[in-house]
Write a structure and sequence with these properties.
Elements (H helix, E strand, L loop, with lengths): L1 H8 L18 H9 L2 H16 L5 E5 L5 H9 L4 E6 L2 H10 L6 H5 L1 E5 L10 E6 L10 H14 E13 L7 E9 L3 E12 L5 E10 L4 E11 L3 H10 L4 E10 L2 E8 L9 E8 L1
Parallel strand pairs: 1-2, 1-4, 2-3, 4-5
Antiparallel strand pairs: 5-12, 6-7, 7-8, 8-9, 10-11, 10-12
The chain binds S-adenosylmethionine (SAM).
């Protein structure tokens, strides 16, 4: 004991190693949302499109494959009577959304968002005005039987006259092997690089493999943060499957073009220009 006391009282010089200040690595969900989502714009577009097609007002929506369900949170902010039900199989994005988006809502808004960790193949409440399946997520169903099963289950959950809004992508630019990079801003100050990687496409099966990578300003590379194994369904195949599932009709919202470039405006069309890469919406009407 005595030795210890005396050694402590000596004023020996101790060199403390300098700690490197590490910037926290952002969540892959935050990077994904900043790269590919505009949930406020999408919620407004769904509102307008429902009015244009049904002449009514959508109040109860279901967001299928909802991930971090940012769009559902935007939906309940738009009107005091709006409700949203989000479905996703994976608890990880659901929990990120609960911590990040749900927690930022008022108690009243929160009470109007319901989340279910559930397969979209199972039907839910049956008073839904509109179901949105964004970012090509239904391409996960590779067999026609499963696709029709999904559409039938959506039809059961929709009110009469309700809409199933499916987001599709295609064109030669969606099947060529390539990497498309863009610089994205996170939280108004931090930049990162988002890469959309088209890994493979099989012309016989229409199986397509894609991945999303990120590169942070620190130089850290985050490979294969999201990977997709999809079947690229064509618009006529999807329309036929909707008809087989019992939808009364389907409407195609195709992007208008100005001097060969997409305008971001989508209108109902029965003929489309042969765009190199396109995004469109196929809307099934119950
Ligand atoms: C491409 S992400 C879409 C995320 C978000 N909806 C968006 O628009 O960016 C696909 C999501 O679908 C979920 N998913 C895949 N199969 C599903 C199924 N059968 N039922 C419910 N969710 C499913 C995955 O867990 C994943 O979160």
């Amino acid at each position: 004991m005595a030795t210890q006391k005396s050694s402590r009282s000596k004023k020996s010089k101790v060199t403390v190693p300098k700690r490197k200040v590490r910037t926290p690595v952002p969540s892959k969900y935050a990077l994904y949302e900043a790269s590919v989502q505009s949930p406020d714009v999408h919620a407004a577009w769904l509102d307008e499109t429902y009015k244009a097609i049904t002449k009514g007002t959508a109040r109860n929506i279901r967001e299928d494959f909802c991930g971090t369900f940012k769009m559902s949170c935007e939906w309940v902010k738009r009107h005091a009577k709006n409700t949203a039900l989000g479905l996703d199989l994976d608890p990880e994005p659901l929990n990120y959304g609960r911590e990040t988006h749900l927690s930022a809502l008022t108690p009243d808004q929160k009470s109007r968002v319901k989340l279910l960790q559930k397969n979209v193949l199972e039907s839910t409440r049956t008073d839904v005005d509109l179901i949105s399946a964004g970012n090509f997520s239904f391409y996960i169903f590779k067999q026609r039987e499963l696709l029709v099963k999904y559409f039938k289950s959506c039809k059961t959950s929709l009110k009469k006259g309700g809409l199933l809004v499916l987001e599709l992508a295609g064109g030669p630019g969606m099947i060529a092997p390539m990497r498309e990079k863009k610089e994205v801003l996170l939280n108004r100050n931090e930049k990162f690089v988002y890469t959309w990687h088209q890994k493979s496409f099989d012309p016989i099966t229409h199986d397509a493999n894609y991945a999303i990578h990120f590169k942070l300003a620190s130089g850290r590379v985050m490979l294969d943060q999201f990977v997709y194994d999809w079947r690229l369904w064509s618009i006529p195949e999807v329309r036929d499957a909707l008809a087989d599932a019992g939808f009364s009709k389907s409407i195609i919202y195709w992007e208008t073009a100005h001097q060969g470039k997409g305008t971001g405006e989508y209108l109902p069309m029965e003929r489309g220009d042969n765009a190199f890469a396109w995004v469109s919406y196929v809307i099934g009407v119950k």
